[in-house]
Structures are given as structure tokens and as C-alpha cells.
Amino acid sequence: MTHSDPVDRHSTRTLLILALAALAYALAQTTVVPAIPELMRGLHTDQTGVTWTLTAYLVAAAVFTPLLGRLGDMYGKRRMLVVALVAFCVGSIIAAASTDLWLVVAGRVVQGVGGGIFPLCFAIIRDEFPREKVSRGIGLLSAIAGIGGGLGLVLGGLLVDYASYRWIFWIGALMGALGAAAAQLFVPESPIRTPARLDVRGAVVLAVGLTLPLVAIANASSVGWSSPRTLLLIALGLLVLAGWVAMERRTPQPLVAISTLARPPVLMTNIATLLVGFGMFGSFILIPTLAEAPTSTGYGFGYDATQAGLLLLPGSIAMLLLGPMSGVIGSRVGNKVPLAVGGAVTACGLALLAVAHSTPTEVLLFALLMSAGIGLAFAAMPNLILEAVPANQTGEATGFNALVRSVGSSLGSQVSATVLAAGAKGVPTSAGFTHAFAVSAVVTGFAGVVATLIPRVKGRTTSGTLGDVGAAAPLGEPALSGEEF
């Protein structure tokens, strides 16, 4: 037995535990989508009320993602991962056991603390894994972000059709509990810490700045994008966020280092992340809606929730395969290549869906192509972030990247819903699906263009991956400074 065998076994075990944690969070993003009609009936509310079960989760995740990433850098990534999973479990139990709308919403807020799972998992991989396994491991977990979204629709459909929406939350609670126990027992604690004071003021201001526009976006399809309420909330949110940036620049130990976010590789990767997230979640809304529409509409397939979700299953499998492959490609030619190619392939799949979505075969094949692109792109994003920041900023940088993806997801789903609602009397038309798919295609096409402009971090080898960082400490502090860009 070689010296590396125990290390390989430990890293494989850790990766499986982190994958379980990431899958629990990813599933929760979309499993409730097929359950919306049943939630309305079970909670005795309307479309506007049940929307809060989605909005509350998204807003909480957006706020806690960078916060837990920062806490992980300060107090230990494994420790905060367990905290995030326990909170996710508790929130799931609250939502599953409640019959009151606002208690379910409260449960979804607590569930949203799990938004820190992904950046904490990325940081643990960077700190603990052998160099040659880092890119591939991050690629797999990144692919799970997309896989979970697609599988969530399938699982949610099955539970709605054959059980109860409550099982959506009970399954989440079980996965969260198992993930927390396994992480506590078998995942080693990261040796890399960043002693600092927690920027509570920055966290509160960021929460307000994110909440206002996200609430506006989540309700825009019902009240209108041009309504005074929507425009006012978005404007106020942007104003608060601008103030937050100015405040963080003057804070000695900020929640997020603005100078790091402003680095061209980080900034442009985040922009591409926003655009790809837009296209992915737009499709998660459009494809099930199209498939479940009655055949009498002239374009719908008359599927139930399970059948509609199954249209995305082949694409989820493609993401699972292409996520690690993206890491391998990135380690050889640079991570911006799979991001650029992934953006272009995603845009191609969405464009084909725009012009041909009249049969289940067309939708399945073009959704598969789209998902293949998403698998390549999603895996490259955190690798690009990690290779551009020092190890002691891993949590906050990848946390902010996950936050940006959440914002893009919210934009994509709500813009798609608004385009569909623009039909006569708010009823979707075939032309509405064409326009909505086309918008998503254009947006993700821009993501591919932005990716080609991401500059390579100086001092790295041509591979551009963490596994090839020079002779520095073991995945410790890369020799980076703000002057290298």
C-alpha cells in the first residue's frame, strides 16, 4: 500500500459527504416548484402568498451564503458546514410540520441558512484535497448545483403526484441530518483560518440591499415589472448596495473584500455566473410549464409533474458527467475555456428550444444540449474564483459567487414568467415560449463572451488550476496580490 492510499480514501469519503450536503441544498431550490398548486391548497393561500415560500428561501440563502463563507474562514469550514446543515434540517422540519403559510415561510428562511453549504464545501476541498484532485472535486460539486435543480423537479413531481408536498421537506430534513452527522464525524477541520472580527453591520446592510430587489423580482410577474412598487424596491435596493460597497471599502475587516471582488478575473467570473444562472433557472421554469400545459393549447404535452420533470433527467445526468470533465479540461487549458464553451453550448440549446419545442423529443434533446453546457460552465466558475484569490479568502469569495448565481436564478425565473404572462389574458402562448427561450439564449450567449475576456492570473501555469499552484504551501496561500492583475 502506498503512502497516498489513505489520503485518497479520506478525500473520496470527504467528497461523498460534501456531495450529499450540496445535493440537499440544490434539491431544495426546485423541489417546491411542482408543488406550488398543492401548497396553495394545503396552506389555504393564493399564488402571491405561496410565492413567499420561494422568495424567503432565496433571500435567506443570498444573505447567509457570504456570511457563512466568511465565518468558515474565521472559525473553521467544517464547523460552519455542520451549522449550515443543522439549520437546513431544522428549517425543513418546521416547513414539513406546519400548516400555516407564515410558519412554512419561516421554515424556508431557516432552510436558507444552508446557502453557505456550497462555498464551505469548495473551501474544504481546496484546503484538504491533494492538489491533483481539487479541480475535479470542485467540478463535481458544481455540477451538483445544476443536477440538483433538475432532479429537484423530478423528485418534487413524484412526491406531488404520489405522496404529499410535506415529504419534500421531510426528505430535506433527513439529508441535512445525515450530512451534518457525517461531516462532524468524518470530515477533517480545515487548518487555514483568518482571524478577524465579524462585520455584523456589513451583513445587515447587505441583507437589506439584497432583500429589497429580490422581493421585487420575485413578485414582478404578479404586480408588473413597470409598477411603481417594483421599480421603487429595485431602486432602493441598488442604492443600499451602492452604500454597502462604499461602507465595506472603509471597514478595516469587511464581510467581503471589495478589492478582491473588483479584480478582473473575479469580477468577470461573477458576471458570467449571473448570466448562466439566469439561463439555467429560466429553463427550469419554462420546460415544466410547457410540458404540463394541456394539449388543447396547441403547444402543451399534457404531462403530469413527474413526466415534466423527467424531460430534464437526461440533462441532469449530463451535468454529473461533464462537471468533473470540466475540471480536467480546465486543469489543462485554463478554466475560462470550459466556461466559454459551456456558455456557448447552453445558448445553442436554448436557441434551438426557442425555434423547436413542439414535440417531447425536441425538448428532451435540446434540453440535454443546454444542460451539457451548464455542466461545463458551472464547474469552471468556482475554480476560476479559487485560482484568483488567496486561500484565506476562499469562503467569502466563493460565497459571493454563489450569491450572484442565486440572483441570476431569480432573475431568470421571474423574467421567463413575465414573458409568458404577456400573452392574451395572461395565458402563455407558443410565441411566448419562443420569446422566453430566446431571451435566455441571448443572456447565456453573453456569458460565453464574457468568459473569453477573463484574464489569466499571473504567476500561474497554463493549467490555471489550484492543483498547479507553484511550490507554495499545501494548497495554502498562493502568492497573489492585488497588483498582479
CATH class of the largest domain reads Mainly Alpha
Q: Tell me the series of helices and strands, N- to C-terminal.
A: HHHHHHHHHHHHHHHHHHH
Shape: globular
Low-confidence segments: 460-485
CATH topology of the largest domain: Growth Hormone, Chain: A
> In CATH, what is the homologous superfamily of the largest domain?
MFS general substrate transporter like domains
The average pLDDT score comes to 83
Structural class: mainly alpha
Radius of gyration, whole Å? 21 Å
Relative strand content: under 5%
Counting DSSP E segments of at least 2 residues, the number of strands comes to 0
Largest beta-sheet details? none
Summed up, the domain count is 2
Helix content: over 70%
The multimeric state of the shown protein is single chain
The span between the termini is: 44 Å
Total DSSP helices: 19
CATH architecture of the largest domain: Up-down Bundle
